[in-house]
Design brief:
Elements (H helix, E strand, L loop, with lengths): L27 H17 L2 H7 L6 E3 L9 E7 L5 E14 L3 E4 L18 E2 L1 E7 L5 E7 H14 L21 E3 L2
Parallel strand pairs: 4-8
Antiparallel strand pairs: 1-2, 2-3, 3-6, 4-5, 6-7
Bound molecules: ligand UDB and zinc ion.
């Protein structure tokens, strides 16, 4: 299972690489990596397991964060309506998105960043993500709210992008015109 020692931190070059597409159908090894990413986010949200293994609770994790430069991610998050979004995908891609933007009013953090980086992170308010699940089936997800934010954050990791790359350097809290604030 993945623990915090497996999660690389900012400064590690892998976080700035563009990850490789996963050849489908996936090998057993690729399937094991994808499964371990989802296992981490699920385990980390279980207070007993998290405290037993010292896991930082996370709602998403991308393969480059465990030094595997391949296009894989896992998300386990409940949206404001209480709907659980639990997905582990190979080769996820945003195939369409809203013009409207959104942002977490609390700003963002990252399991690979051991510091606070204040500021608003502009994201698309709604995205359609296409990917392949562990069984090799194509998955198409229409997302909004917190799930949309998480998927965009994780897909950024697959392209070597960190959340703070999006923060306005002159004024980190510069209002984002017309953007939808998403409360925590
Ligand atoms: C880095 C950490 C702060 C642990 C972050 N968790 C998080 O944002 N939790 C959260 C947010 C809410 F809006 C409501 C709620 F109920 C819980 C997280 O897991 N990640 C995952 C990560 O680093 N993936 O690479 C960072 C998030 C920032 C925006 C989306 C993912
Ligand atoms: Zn992150």
């Amino acid at each position: 299972m993945i623990t915090m020692k497996d999660i690389i931190r900012e400064g590690h070059p892998t976080l700035r690489k563009v990850a490789e597409e996963v050849t489908l159908p996936p090998t057993e090894e690729d399937k094991e990596v994808l499964r371990s990413l989802l296992e981490y986010v699920v385990n980390s949200q279980d207070p007993e397991v998290a405290s037993k293994y010292g896991l930082r609770p996370g709602i998403g994790l991308a393969a480059p964060q465990i030094n595997v430069s391949k296009k894989m991610l896992a998300v386990n998050v409940i949206d404001e309506k209480g709907t659980l979004y639990s997905h582990a995908l190979f080769n996820p891609k945003i195939i369409s998105h809203s013009v409207e933007k959104a942002y977490l009013t609390s700003g963002e953090g990252c399991l690979s960043v051991d510091r606070q980086v204040p500021g608003l992170v502009p994201r698309y308010a709604r995205v359609t993500v296409k990917g392949w699940n562990i069984n090799g089936e194509e998955v198409k997800l229409r997302l909004r709210g917190l799930p949309a934010i998480v998927f965009q954050h994780e897909i950024d990791h697959l392209n070597g992008i960190m959340f703070y790359d999006h923060i306005n350097e002159e004024n980190p809290f510069e209002p984002i015109p017309g953007a939808l604030p998403i409360e925590r």
